[in-house]
Structure formats: C-alpha cells, structure tokens
Design goal:
The complex is a heterodimer of chains A (115) and B (110). Chain A is mostly beta strands and 115 residues long. Chain A is 0% helix and 52% strand. Classes of the chains: A mainly beta (115), B mainly beta (110).
C-alpha cells in the first residue's frame, strides 16, 4: 500500500512570498497532521485535520494555515514568508485522530528554503 | 502542556554493542509512547511503540521500557549494525497530538 506522499519535495522562495504544500495520506487514513522540523527546535506540531475539520493547532502564527479535502488530502499554506520559515515540513497520516493509540505515518517532507 | 526531554543528543557505539536512549515526560496523562527513526533525506519512520498499560515491549533487536511512576521511557537497541545509524525521536501523547523529544543522532561505527 502506498505511503504518505508530499509535493513538492523541494521549494525555494523569497521573503514575503506565500507557499502551498500538499500531502496525500495513506488510503483509508482520515487524519493528517503537519509538523515543522528544524535543527534547533526538532519536530513542532502545526495542526491536525480530521474529516475536513481542524482538530488541534500548535503554537504558530496565523500565517500558517491548512485545510483538508473530502478525500483526506491536505494542504498547508504559509503567507508572507520569513527567513525563519526555512525548514522541513512533514505531513503524517493516521487512521483516526492522533492520540488514542493511533499510529502516525510520516511522508518524506517538503524542504522549504526562504531567501 | 506535555514536555519531552531526550538524552543523549548524540551517541556513538561500536558495531555489535548496545545503544540506549532515554526520554522523560511531564504529563501523567500521556498514555502512548512511540519511537521514530529518521534517516537522511527521509521522514521519520515508526519503529516501535508502547502503551501506558505495558511496562516493556520487544521487537527483535529493539525494545522499549516504560516507567510510569518516574515518567520515563527508554529505547534499547542490541547488536547494533551500521544501518542503525540515524536520528531517533521519542514522543509522548496525552490524548492530543504527539509531543516529540529533540532527537538522538546514533552513529554505529563498523
């Protein structure tokens, strides 16, 4: 069975621009979570979507937003990019909501570089 | 909220030796503790997990122990091999999204 896919794998943007990242979860999985990974901060939770509804949100500014479609695919958007947004953005899917012993499976990530 | 501390941040072992990575958590409501392995250029991969009603779980060369009283859990890798070299993350879930430790870079020297 296919794993979690993320597109694009690499992105280079300049400050002030906006970016949209895409995630396709494992078939049958209804929950999609997004994480930001940086060398200094590790893996930080951005938000989780389950059945097209945002269920949890991390401590990130409103420039970071997301959505989930009826087929469980998810997108996240970052507006007004800052240099500090350079990171690996990881998407993870699970069958049910996170917690409750639901295993999360990660995609390969999108490497975003902001110049 | 939950806070997960992970030690050590780097670990070098000789091939064939054992490696131990330790994590502590702060929220006694956490009931699920997965471990992930991340290789260069890839996303984290779940390698083993443990639930709060279990004290130990083993899968071939990998084992995880959980001490709920002390709020710590550990990953044990025996007979290490070069392909075990990677970054390992522990995480805890208090019924909300996973909270991750900062990671341990394990190097297995042949």
């Amino acid at each position: 069975k296919a794993g979690v896919t993320q597109t694009p794998r690499y992105l280079i943007k300049t400050r002030g621009q906006q970016v949209t990242l895409s995630c396709s979860p494992i078939s049958g999985h209804r929950s999609v979570s997004w994480y930001q990974q940086t060398p200094g901060q590790g893996l930080q939770f951005l938000f989780e979507y389950f059945s097209e509804t945002q269920r949890n949100k991390g401590n990130f500014p409103g420039r970071f937003s997301g959505r989930q479609f009826s087929n469980s695919r998810s997108e996240m958007n970052v507006s007004t990019l800052e240099l500090g947004d350079s990171a690996l953005y990881l998407c993870a899917s699970s069958r049910g909501q996170t917690g409750s012993y639901n295993e999360q499976f990660f995609g390969p990530g999108t490497r975003l570089t902001v110049l | 909220g939950e806070n997960v501390e992970q030690h050590p941040s780097t670990l070098s072992v000789q091939e064939g030796d054992s490696a131990v990575i330790k994590c502590t958590y702060s929220d006694s409501a956490s009931n699920y503790f997965p471990w992930y392995k991340q290789e260069l250029g890839k996303g984290p991969q779940l390698i083993i997990d443990i639930r709060s009603n279990v004290g130990e779980k083993k899968d071939q060369r990998i084992a995880v122990t959980l001490n709920k009283t002390a709020k710590h859990f550990s990953l044990h890798i025996t007979e290490t091999q070069p392909e075990d070299s990677a970054v390992y993350f522990c995480a805890a879930s208090p019924g909300t999204p996973l909270v991750f430790g900062k990671g341990t870079r394990l190097s297995v020297i042949a």
